[in-house]
Amino acid sequence: MSKKLEKFETHDELIAHKQSVFGKYQKFVPEFVYGGIDGAVTTFAVVAAAAGAELGASVVLILGVSNMLSDGLSMSIGSFLSTKSEREQYDHIEAEEYEETLKFPEAETEEIREIYTAKGFSGNLLEKIVQHVVADKDLWVSEMMVGEHGMIREEKHPSANALMTFVSFCILGFIPISPYVYALVTKTELPNAFTVACISTAFAFTLIGYLKGLVTQTNKIKAILETLLLGGIAAGVAYLVGDWLEKLILG
After folding, report:
1. 80: region left, alpha or beta (phi > 0 left; psi from -120 to 50 alpha)
2. Do the Cβ atoms of 134 and 79 come closer than 8 Å?
């Protein structure tokens, strides 16, 4: 038995855990991680370029916030359209499968038989399974969608996906520019603002990794190190490109 299951004394406790707050939002982890990392890297690139050009905090804030909102909106729209297209494609193929089971029941039944034969079933047991599946039209089509097309219906609503992407992009994307926001609001000089921004960006990646590990119930240290490494590489590339372009254009 895995250590993950040892803490649950009954099956009901396990089910309750899976239906907890984190369990409900576990399916949105990819959107949160993707949006959060991209948001942090995007605004960090703006900060890096602004730091190289020695621009003021107000300019950094204008560029950072405008990029954060526009890119976050663009990503969320992309996520919405992508998820919507997947659901529409699934619905289209599913409708075709319903028609095929009505028009060609023998051929579709044979396909179910082939699917379960490939899974290792044979003889009387195989025939009982086939008869059970084809007796329920919805189950029949569902099995065809998975066995023939390798498709599972996307349960996440496109709007929910888009919202999670946008929120994580903006929240995590705000962190790299937060030192400049502080400097502007308090009207103080921060000669080491870029260094603080680098540390803040590392904190953003650490937060993403920790929440990822928390929600997915995986090793949090591993999740943090993995996110720091991959996010750090992306942020480093953004800084180097921004610095190179600044020297190339401004001299």
Report:
1. alpha
2. no
Q: What does the buried/exposed string (b/e) look like for 178-202 if buried means 16 or more CB atoms within 10 Å of the residue's CB? A: bbbeebbeeeeebeebbebbbebbb
Interval 25-58: pLDDT, tens: 567 777 777 788 888 888 887 887 777 666 677 7
First-to-last CA distance in the chain?
63
Threshold 0.85, pTM exceeds: no
Q: What tokens does 88 get?
A: 């529409």
Q: Alpha carbon of 125 to those of 34, 105, 122, 135, 141: distances in Å?
A: 45, 20, 6, 15, 20
> What's the token pair of residue 178?
């937060």
